[in-house]
Structure formats: C-alpha cells, structure tokens
Write a structure and sequence with these properties.
3 domains; 520 residues; single chain; 29 strands; 29% helix; Glutaredoxin; seven-stranded mixed beta sheet; 13 helices; alpha+beta; Alpha-Beta Plaits
C-alpha cells in the first residue's frame, strides 16, 4: 500500500469498486481500503437494471455479470391471489434489453477481478479512522490488521463506505431526510414448492392487503422472496425465520400448502429504512458516492443501480479534472446531477403503489384499472423507461446546453441519454453505442447534406484538452426520429448529450468547450 496516491476510495462495495475501475481506466493511481476482510458473504442487492448494465459495459465487466446472472423477461402481477396481467421488461434502444438477477455476493468478486486486471488490489481488513481535507488533497488515517496505523496522502478522497460515512461526517455535510415510518421488509432465499411453477425468467409480484411480496428467480436456484409490509413492532430486529416467511409467502400467494426450503448458504433479513440525501456530494477534494450520498427504501431495487450510475458519472469527471483537461467546476456538476437523480428515484419509488403495502381503497382501485393498465402498450413503455432508468436525464444540469433549433417532442435534447440506434456511418450500418467510448467524448454530426465532419468543427475540438472523436452519421431510412437532423451532438463519456447545436455551429461548440475545458 503506497503512502501517496491520486485517489483513496473508502469502501469496497459495488460503488467503490466501480469508481476505482473507472479511475484506473483513466490511468489514476487508486487505493481502495475496506474494513471487512473480504467481499460480502451476504446476498444483499439482487437486480441490475438495464442502464446499470450499460455502466458495467463501460467498465469492462458486463459480460462477466451476464455469465453469472439470470436475464429476466417479464413480471407477472397478482392482486389478492388473482392474476392481473404481466409487464414485459424489454425496452428498445439498448444492447441490454433485460434486467439481470444477480446477488451482491456474486457481483463484488467480479468487480474485484476487473480491478485486479487493471493492476489494483483492494486493501482488505483496513479501516479509515480519520480524514483530513485541505486545499490540494487529503490525508486518510487507516488502521490495518493487528492495529497497525498508517496515513495515506492523496489528491482526492471518496467516501463509498455507506450510511455512516466517515467522509461525510468529517466534512460536516448534513444527511437530510427522515426515517420511513411503519414500513419494513423481510426477505429470504429459498426453494419453493408452490403452485406457480418455476419459470427462470419471470418475476412474480403479489399484492395483498397491507403486504406486497416479490419473488425473483436466483442464479443459484430458488427465489429471493422479498416482502414489504407494515411494521407494528419496530422492536423486532432479528431476521425472519423460515416459519415466519412461509406464513407470509403462503398468505400473499394464496397457497396454504406452500413449502419453503432455505438455500445454502442461508440468507434472511429484516430491514427498516431512512430516506436521506447528503446536502452536497462534493466539498473540495472530498466526494461522496452511493449509500454515503443517498439512501432510501429499496422499492424497485434502485439503490445499488443509482450508486453504480453515480460512480459512472463521477469517474470521468474526476479524471478530467485530475489530468488538467477540465476546470474543477466540472466536479460540481456531479454533485448537482447525482443529487437530482437520487431525488427523482426517491420520489418515483414513493409513488410505486405496486410494491408499497396497499390499503383497501388502493386495492379497490387496482382491481378496477390494473388489468387495463398492464395491457396498455403506452403504460408498459412508461414502466420500462422508469425501471430501466433510461428515463433519467440531466437536462437541467449546467453541463447540458441546447443551442440548436427546436425539434419534435420526441427528439433528443441536451442532457438525455443517447439511445443505441442504428445509423449510417462511413457508408456502413453501425450501432450508435459502438461509436461511443467511456474514455472520451464523442462528436456526432448529423448534417442535412454532406458526407464528412467539417474540418472547422475538428479544429474547434482540437483547441482544447478534451479527449474526443468525431463521426458523421445519418439515421437509417427505417430508423427513429429521435436523432435530430441538421444537428451536432457532443456526447459525454457516460453517454449523455452535453451539447446539442446546429450541424455547422462551431461557435456554439467553441463556447461550450471553453466553459468546461482548458486550452491545449
């Protein structure tokens, strides 16, 4: 373990490991310290949504996740024992149309292995006990095995250590929010002898009075049974036993003869929740990612996914500032964008009546409109956009600039994630995502005529210390109207559009680059 590094990351959960991978891909020296002696042995988080799979692709490990998980295809909905319908989970515009069932104790070793490929090992059994931040960096006091003490000097320190973050507490950043009252979640991994079969690509959601049960197939066999219900006795803290979970599952699925056989190794948990978000995710040379920055009840399973997307957002920005390519104000856009994203997810999940324990009026409403909603293509597309996280955008960010002509309501805008669409480039049919890369910006020019990126635009980009590549593209004849013709799109390394301008508007491109990047 070196005494000085570019960045010290505290916490080797999925978000800390993802950020370390991102920074190593940009060539930063990184030390990751983790107080536990090894990766998690508990199952914990269990689903990776489509946008997070795109994140993992950029980090070079989506393929290993897919090889170790189960791709889910649909969700069946039941209301008080009666089937309401189903929800298909295959949005378009992505190479990863299906979410992935994979548990955290399987995720973390895959991320550790990817980090090892990049030449960095996690420093296990080492706890950060104090953090000091100053104008040009930070110092982290750590205590290793046997109580050995050491101080690590770094230019950047990032707290990824969870809700009791020592970085956040040291900085005095308020963790704003409150406890979620009268809500608990109980869960168990188990094989089920029940009447619903064993489709390996199907999630089942059972809505009952004051209870909602979700059954997700597991890669290791059986199901993750996860139930949100009211919390009449907060003093009960022990994980639920097999008998308690069997009674809960049997009641929700209306199968009194159901039997549960806990998996090996066993996993059961009882949790209560806070909805909280840090007042700022950046104070000088210190930053917060994942549960250190925000947390909420795991409705929709978006906590882990939002953390991965936060690491993805921060990694390229921190590297650009560290290498001197960009101004430090770029890091403030991470804090603003990620806080807004977390607030949106928190708000949407508070409205998720399918998973929240429902009372009699809600059940009556769902009985009347639920089948029609589930049968609606429009509502299915809306649900897919929310669950996949493709709906999340950075349109209000300071980093998003729209200076081109207004297009139709479905056209891309600055701040939107660029969907994976077929285009013509250099006379070949290409996928848009094949033109993108996490290690650079991408200039896409969609002129009304002509076949090459104008040399004037290339000269503008070359004035600045921004890694970028330019492509002239056209929508395929049968393609989507999402791509605005007569435009240029300057796409961030994380796949969001930074600038949308006219196809020959070099002045707009120059103004944008001059605001964020240093001249060569």
């Amino acid at each position: 373990m070196s005494d000085a590094q570019d960045a010290v990351i505290i916490g080797a959960g999925p978000t800390g490991l993802a950020l370390a991978i991102a920074l190593r891909q940009y060539g930063l020296g990184v030390t990751v310290v983790e107080k536990e002696p090894r990766t998690k042995r508990e199952a914990r988080a269990s689903v990776v949504w489509q946008r997070a799979l795109e994140v993992l692709r950029d980090l070079g490990c989506a393929h290993t996740f897919l090889a170790n998980g189960i791709q889910l295809n649909r969700a069946e909905m039941y209301l008080r024992g009666r089937r309401m319908g189903e929800h298909r989970v295959r949005p378009s515009g992505t190479p990863y149309p299906r979410p992935l069932s994979i548990e955290q104790d399987s995720m973390e070793p895959l991320l550790v292995e990817r980090l090892r490929e990049l030449g960095t090992e996690v420093v296990w059994g080492t706890e950060a006990v104090a953090v000091r931040v100053h104008g040009h960096g930070a110092e982290v006091d750590v205590r290793g095995p046997g109580g050995t003490a050491r101080t690590l000097a770094c230019r950047w320190v990032v707290g990824c250590e969870g809700s009791h973050s020592i970085v956040r507490r040291t900085l005095g950043v308020p963790f704003e929010g409150e406890r979620r009252e009268n809500l608990q979640a109980v869960q168990i991994n188990a094989e089920a002898d029940w009447k619903y079969g064993h489709d390996r690509d199907t999630t089942r959601i059972f809505v009952e009075h004051r209870m909602c049960l979700i059954a997700d197939p597991r890669p290791g066999g059986g199901y993750r049974f996860f139930c949100f219900l009211r919390d009449p006795d907060p003093g009960v803290t022990a994980p639920p036993g097999p008998d308690e979970m069997r009674d809960i599952v049997a009641r929700c699925v209306h199968d009194p003869g159901l039997q549960l056989m806990p998996t090996e190794p066993p996993w059961a948990d009882r949790a209560r929740f806070h909805d909280r978000i840090a007042a700022s995710l950046r104070v000088g040379r210190a930053l917060l990612v994942g549960d250190s920055a925000h947390l909420w009840a795991p409705i929709g399973g978006h906590g882990l996914n939002t953390g991965l997307r936060g690491a993805h957002n921060l990694g390229w920005k921190l590297a650009a500032v560290h290498h001197g390519w960009a101004r430090e104000s770029l890091l403030d856009t991470y804090s603003a964008e990620q806080r807004r994203t977390a607030q949106e997810v928190m708000r949407d999940m508070r409205r998720n009546i399918l998973e929240l324990p429902a009372g009699t009026p809600t059940l009556a409403m769902m009985r009347i409109v639920g089948p029609a909603v589930l049968a609606s293509d429009r509502m299915n597309r809306r649900g897919q956009a929310i669950l996949s996280d493709f709906i999340r955008n950075h349109r209000t960010s300071d980093l998003s600039t729209d200076s081109g002509p207004r297009r139709g309501g479905g056209a891309l805008r600055a701040g939107d994630r660029l969907p994976d669409l077929p285009v013509l480039q250099g006379g070949r049919r290409r996928s848009l995502h094949d033109l993108l890369s996490y290690d650079r910006w991408t200039l896409l020019v969609l002129p009304d005529d002509g076949d090459a990126v104008g040399p004037g635009l290339r000269r503008v980009v070359d004035r600045y210390a921004v890694p970028a590549e330019a492509f002239h593209v056209r929508p395929v004849p049968d393609g989507s109207a999402v791509l605005p013709g007569g435009s240029l799109l300057f796409v961030r390394p994380d796949g969001h559009v930074g600038l949308r301008a006219g196809a020959e508007d070099g002045a707009a491109l120059d103004t944008y680059l001059g605001r964020w990047f240093t001249r060569r």
